[in-house]
Amino acid sequence: MIVVTRLNGSGFAVNPDLVERIQETPDTTLIMVDGAKYIVRESMEEVIDLIAAYRARIVGMAYGTDGQGTRGATGPVPTLAPVAPLHAHDGGR
Fold this sequence. Notes:
Layout: E1 2-5, E2 11-14, E3 19-24, E4 28-32, E5 37-40, H1 44-62
Antiparallel strand pairs: 1-2, 3-4, 4-5
Keywords: Cell projection, Cilium, Flagellum
Pfam families: FlbD
Protein name: Flagellar protein FlbD
């Protein structure tokens, strides 16, 4: 969840995975996948930064880091799965 601020100053949490789009007209409006709209004090750039930080934190937790790029004492080492090369005779499948 990310915490944003209503125009009246009260804070509330939003699931960033449910934000469909963000508009500044001129107030920043979060439009959710279910059609709900929330007008917030934060700028569009600030909301995008909050969402990016949230996602980085989630990925960091999954890989055992603190979300700032440093390795935790315990946790899996991230690795990429090998990808089979494409062959011309299989049409790129």
